[in-house]
Amino acid sequence: MIHSISSPVPKCSLCKVNDADKSGSHIIPHFLLKLVDSVKGKTGRDIELGFVIEPFETLSYFGRGVQPEKLEEIFGELSDEEIDDKKNRPFVVENLFCSSCENKLAIIESEYAKTLETTSEAKYYSGIASEIGLLFWMSVIWRVSINKKSGNQLTTEENEILRRILNRTLTNSIETIDFKSMQESKDLKKVGYKLIRCSNYTKDSTSAMVFHPGFRKPYTLLIGEYILFFSLKNHFYQYLTEDFFGLKEEICEATVNYTNSKESILSIPKETMNVVYHGIIEKTKNVRLKFMDDFFNKVHIALQGPGKTMPVEIKNEILVEVTSDEKKPGRRYTNQDLIDSTYKVLKKYAPK
Questions:
Q1: What is the pLDDT of residues 6-15, one digit of tens each?
Q2: Are 309 and 335 contained in the same domain?
Q3: In the list 8, 48, 95, 215, which could disulfide-bond 63, CB 3.0-4.6 Å?
Q4: Are residues 322 and 333 in the same domain?
Q5: Is 82 contained in some domain?
Q6: Burial of 187 (0-12, 13-18, 19+ CB in 10 A)
Q7: Sign of the Cα pseudo-torsion (300, 60, 9, 100, in order)
Q8: Of 210 and 313, which is predicted with more confidence?
């Protein structure tokens, strides 16, 4: 008789002691993730519907709760493999945490979620202690980093520092978190963050999650209506000479949140956030066009075409095919779509 050998359960990424027995862990807390990828007009879990825009292609994902008619509208016919939501959801992972650590993360998330109702048109206090904000945003940026699917990562040393802080500080209730120890912690002396928010931006505007690889002093993470600037070493000087898609003065104006204070958030108007998102779209488009141009030239050379570049008119014809309105939104801009579109156009120019 042949016995199957199952893979051992990995250890929890947070405590490093217990088995990572928890399934369906959210890398990004649900109340933030729904600002980015929930079906419009819907609330609750398992209704994610979004796109991962990478430099070289666009990938899509959806939760098991999305209605079939919506999937048909976005993707057309789906294969059984594509319907496997565990594979398709980049911010929901299996066997990363144990149940105990997952519960501790959920407690800090629930406490921070209360701040969503507090808004202002200027700089304001969110209503919580900065220790809670530090733990919450630290847990978010750490999880995004170790997930390795968002364009940027902290260093190995930085990941370990954040893991160590979270592991020793998070508890099973908000009341038992030791603020005094946090304020005296050597690890936390220079850890701080700035936070900018455009309240309710996602109600009628498309949003995204971007962990920008070009910014490390501080790390910069955009999620929906929030932009987080996070540093482990009090490094916020990169924005003295650079801007984040139009934001510069606002970043300098925002208060750094350290321990032993109240969380401060700088509010910006929708018009300003629109500029940020437009800049991100333009940057992504330019990177994508550069990749596609290189791809076309390599195909041209491989097919032994004259010269080292594909004729501009053929490139433009392929781009028209790639962006065709006849395609379902969920089928555009993938690598397979690029290959199929290129083949379709070049086939017309093949010798009879």
A1: 567 899 999 9
A2: yes
A3: 48
A4: yes
A5: no
A6: middle
A7: positive
A8: 313
Q: Which two three-digit tokens encode residue 52?
A: 């991962």
* d(C-alpha 90, C-alpha 208), whole Å: 13
Cα 208 to Cα 217: distance, rounded to the nearest angstrom: 22
- What rounded mean pLDDT belongs to the chain? 82
Q: Residue 333 sits in which domain range?
A: 277-349
- Do 302 and 269 lie in a common domain? no
Output the 3-class SS for 13-62. Answer: CCCCCCECCCCCEECCCHHHHHHHHECCCCCCCCCEEEEEECCCCEEEEE
Query: What would the pLDDT profile of 43-101 be if each residue is shown by its tens digit?
Result: 444 444 344 545 554 444 444 544 445 444 444 554 555 545 445 556 778 899 999 99
- Residue that terminates a domain, selected from 248, 274, 300: 274
pLDDT value of residue 46:
47
81 Rama class: left (phi>0) / alpha (psi -120 to 50) / beta: alpha
Amino acid, res. 55: P
Q: What tokens does 221 get?
A: 């993470």
Whether 23 is in a domain gets the answer: no
- Looking at residue 246, its amino acid is G
Pairing state of beta strands 209-216 and 192-197? unpaired
Q: Give the single-character DSSP code of 217.
A: T
**Spatial separation of the C-alpha atoms in residues 224 and 15, rounded to whole Å:** 29
What value, to the nearest 5°, has the Cα angle with vertex 93 and ends 195 and 52?
A: 60
Alpha-carbon distance 317 to 312, whole Å?
A: 9
Two tokens, residue 24: 């369906």
C-alpha–C-alpha distance, residues 73 and 89, integer Å: 19
The total domain count for the chain is 2
Q: Is the dihedral of CA 54, 57, 63, 66 positive or negative?
A: positive
Shared domain for 262 and 114, answered yes or no, is yes
